[in-house]
Amino acid sequence: MAVADRRTAEAGTSMSRLMERAGTAVADAVAALGHGVSALVLAGPGNNGGDAFVAARVLRQRGYRVAVLDLAGEGGSEEAVTARSAYRGPRVAADDGAIDAAVEAATVIVDGLFGGGLSRDLEGAMAALVTRVNRARVRSRAAPHVVAIDLPSGIDGATGMVRGVAIRADRTVTFECRKPGHLLVPGRHYCGKVTVAEIGIAAATLKGLAVTTFANEPDLWRAHRPKLARGGHKYDRGHAVAVSGPMTATGAARLAITAALRTGAGLATLLSPGDALLVNAAHLTTVMLARVDDATGLTEALTDRRRNAVLLGPGMPPDAATRAMAEAALAAPAAAVLDAGAVVAFAGDVAGLKRAVGEGAAVLTPHAGEFSRLFGGEGGDKLARARAAAAASGAVVVFKGEDTVIAAPDGRAAINANAPPFLATAGAGDVLGGIITGFLAQGVPAFEAAAMGVFLHGLVATRIGPGLIADDLIDGLRAARAAFDML
Ligand SMILES: NC(=O)C1=CN([C@@H]2O[C@H](COP(=O)(O)OP(=O)(O)OC[C@H]3O[C@@H](n4cnc5c(N)ncnc54)[C@H](OP(=O)(O)O)[C@@H]3O)[C@@H](O)[C@H]2O)[C@H](O)CC1
Ligand SMILES: [K+]
Predict the structure, then answer these.
(1) Which of 47, 155, 338, 402 shows its CA 20 to 30 Å from the CA of 451?
(2) Is the domain of 185 the same as that of 231?
(3) From ligand 2's centre to the CA of 423, what distance in Å?
(4) 19 lines ligand 1 (CB under 6 A)
(5) Distance 379 CA to ligand 1 centre (A)
(6) What's the gap in Å between 249 CA and the centre of ligand 1?
């Protein structure tokens, strides 16, 4: 964003104009809360504080009651200093008693302490102030509405992580586009409703920045959605296959392969070990069934080049035999999706996985535990971890969770935010693997197939609502798939 600001300034829109528009957008959001607003504006040392002073000035000009708690100290950018001196209204003394009284009296608190320039954990007086505001926000009667400028102070805009402590906002007004910190958890949960104000950074300027981080929304992959050709043959829509687990663990792959079919693959086959053939046969109608017992059998099955997308891992143990099958899938011309056991089977040998992936289209779909077992590490910057994993494995990595990150080896990454909490249920991950396989079978490139698959998965769950089980996702896919085509 700093680069965008600089280029915009070079193109003739000064930083002070941007700040004026940013602060005015915040004032608009506060004014929209209705009459009787009495705003306490918290202004920090950087340009976020500059925006806060502009907002305070504009609100006062419009006749609202405003007081500013100025925590700028000495210095700040030229624009912030100008904004500060242009505000001539009441200020709150920076002592505990005065702050408590001001917080008590406010109906709205505007958080302009820190935005994109947060560089370390909040400590001391700043941390204490944030805690005070958070306490006031949950007090039962007449709790103030908290509006954050750009980001809730204490949230790291690049990672969504809390730096020590962070403001809990009801609303966040950001500028030009959402940042990762608005989409990744926990940051997302601190923002409240996020609105994006245009402040005059031209789309061309943003485009010229070669952005590689995206919100996972239709603009990202709309053009890649499979199109149904009139008079098309079922083989035009691909042939998805999935490998079944052993006799006691067959359901996961059946869910997945059925999801692939519902996603639009023209044909679907479940490849089953001999001991599980009967149980699989008893449960399948439209999905075809064939016997495959090991890596040699899978290689043989995938010599039929019409079978152009393969999923394995659901219901499979993370052992040497599974790894050998995964290597067979990756060596075949079909695009491959590795989930669950097939991901963990490579634990400790990411280099070996990368060799196996080679130049082929491959997608890995680990949840946090599987991700750690394969790539190491625990917690921290999810976006950076997903990107590093994609680069290290040569595969598209779908790092699952409430804020699933889809990362490609070329550095692109998308953050998903449409998954409802009730989607975290047994079998849901198997359905996701199947949906992605279904898109791959229809010829969608790996990154887009994974990204649209994750989105469709969230969409179908949201349409069903709480109480869903994975089987419902399969049923719901039919209508959701149609809605997805209209996005
Ligand atoms: N295009 C846009 O999006 C525009 C955004 N604007 C606003 O500008 C801010 C970003 O402004 P910036 O000055 O870069 O950063 P901040 O205001 O967030 O804060 C920087 C100052 O805060 C100090 N700092 C950082 N972390 C801490 C901390 N934990 N405790 C105390 N102080 C901290 C930092 O000090 P350093 O020592 O690190 O230098 C700075 O003094 C953006 O969020 C928008 O609100 C523009 O107004 C318009 C264009
Ligand atoms: K802020």
Answers:
(1) 155
(2) no
(3) 31
(4) yes
(5) 26
(6) 53
232, 171: one domain: no
**What pLDDT does residue 234 have?**
85
* Type and span of the H or E element at 338: strand 335-338
* Structural domains of the chain, count: 2
89: domain CATH number is 3.40.50.10260
* 68 and 146 in a common domain: yes
Tens digits of residue pLDDT in 49-87:
999 999 999 999 999 999 999 998 888 899 999 999 999
CATH code at 326? 3.40.1190.20
Q: Is 48 annotated as a binding residue?
A: yes
Nearest protein CA to atom 33 of ligand 1, as residue: 118
Q: CA angle, 261 as apex, 257 and 264 as ends, to 5°?
A: 145
Nearest residue (by CA) to ligand 1, atom 36, is 119
Which of ligand 1's atoms lies nearest the C-alpha of 153? Answer: 18
Is 275 part of any known ligand binding site?
Answer: no
Average pLDDT for residues 190-219, to the nearest whole number? 87
Residue 128: how many CA atoms within 13 Å on its side-chain side? 8
**Ligand 2: centre distance to CA 244 (Å):** 50
Query: Which domain, by its residues, includes 335?
Result: 218-486
Name 347's Cβ contacts closer than 8 Å, sequence gap at least 6.
318, 373, 374
What global pTM score does this model have?
0.96
Exposed/middle/buried for residue 105 (C-beta within 10 Å: 0-12, 13-18, 19+): middle
CB 319 within 8 A of CB 442: no
Q: Please give the Cα distance from 16 to 78 (Å, whole number).
A: 9
